[in-house]
Automatic annotation (TrEMBL):
Molecular function via GO: ATP binding; ATP hydrolysis activity
InterPro entries the record matches: AAA+_ATPase, ABC_transporter-like_ATP-bd, ABC_transporter-like_CS, ABC_transporter_ATP-binding, P-loop_NTPase
The family this protein is said to belong to: Belongs to the ABC transporter superfamily.
Coiled coil segments of this chain: none
Name listed for the protein in its UniProt record: ABC-2 type transport system ATP-binding protein
Keyword annotations: ATP-binding, Nucleotide-binding, Transport
Length: 308
């Protein structure tokens, strides 16, 4: 089956010569959740804007369900829902009317039952008759999400959707995302909350300086690039490690009171057992031990740092 989104050699250069995107290649499969991570100015919003038809590329091609986003704008835009970063709403319109109007803009017939369903899912139904200027910032963010879902899109883009919102909205939103994924909607999100990507995404892409550094299955990425560490709090501090432990991934830290050991997750039982035996043979004893595995945030920081 062809991917629902195909990005080929995509570039974007502004009039002042700034290269926002540098040859991006990306495919997104129907029904998956892809998280795009990157620092401010990395190119995330530019990439989303081009796929959604808001900005024009300088080069390359983007296909949505086989349709070119430039040549077949109307067909592709109708398939996409976008939740932008900015809170752009009509302050003097009611919640129900602005969400209904957004559905009409995409050429869909009025469907009050669907609008009600969306508003209830986002805990907005009791605010349906309120004007937007009467809502808090978090509630306005909910309205943006409702507008993006008003026309029943096949693809949903969430550009920093939980930036500056409360924990309740964040939980509500991820519940809605899981329900949408279960119904076959494809979801692409950008976020600064890397723990959200770690929890919800199927695949993770890292973008920096207009270049896509990698796109991989989340579990495979963490298995390949994540580190596992054994942490030993020593019973007695050491001035230095014996020479026989040199080059074994063992590091003395915390003024000689802690040892950390980077180990191979595939052979962890064997390698840890051998290490503990050798420590005991060298009269090095510990009072506590724990293990730690690199998080997605650790991997992201390492990748972005390496690309500078």
């Amino acid at each position: 089956m062809a991917p629902i989104i195909s990005v080929q050699n995509l570039t974007k250069t502004y009039a002042n010569g700034f290269e926002a995107l540098k040859g991006i290649n990306l495919t997104v499969e129907k029904g998956e959740i892809l998280a795009l991570l990157g620092p401010n100015g990395a190119g995330k919003t530019t990439l989303i804007s081009i796929i959604c038809g808001i900005a024009n590329p300088s080069g390359g091609q983007v296909l949505v369900a086989g349709h070119d986003v430039v040549k077949d704008f109307r067909a592709t835009r109708g398939m996409i829902g976008l939740v932008p970063q900015e809170l752009t709403t009509d302050q003097f319109e009611t919640v129900f009317n602005t969400v209904s109007f957004s559905r009409g803009l995409h050429g869909k017939k009025a469907n009050p039952a669907h609008i009600e369903k969306v508003l209830r899912a986002l805990s907005l139904w009791d605010k349906k008759d309120n004007m937007l200027r009467q809502l808090s910032g978090g509630m306005k963010r909910r309205v943006l999400i409702a507008k993006a879902l008003s026309h029943e899109p096949d693809i949903l883009f969430l550009d920093e959707p939980t930036a500056g919102v409360d924990v309740t909205l964040r939980k509500d939103m991820w519940n809605v995302v899981q329900e949408l994924r279960a119904s076959g909607v494809t979801i692409i999100l950008t976020t600064h909350y890397i723990e959200e990507a770690e929890e919800i995404a199927d695949r993770v892409g890292v973008i920096n300086g207009g270049q896509l550094l990698l796109v991989e299955d989340k579990a495979a990425l963490m298995a390949k690039l994540g580190r596992k560490q054994l942490i030993l709090d020593l019973a007695e501090p050491l001035e230095r490690l014996p020479d026989c432990f040199a080059g074994n991934g063992l590091t003395l830290e915390a003024d000689g009171s802690r040892l950390t050991y980077d180990f191979d997750a595939d052979n962890e039982q064997e390698s840890i057992a051998a290490l503990l035996t050798r420590l005991g043979e060298n009269n090095i004893h510990f009072k506590d031990l724990s293990t730690r595995q690199s998080s997605l945030e650790d991997i992201f920081v390492a990748l972005v740092g390496a690309s500078k």
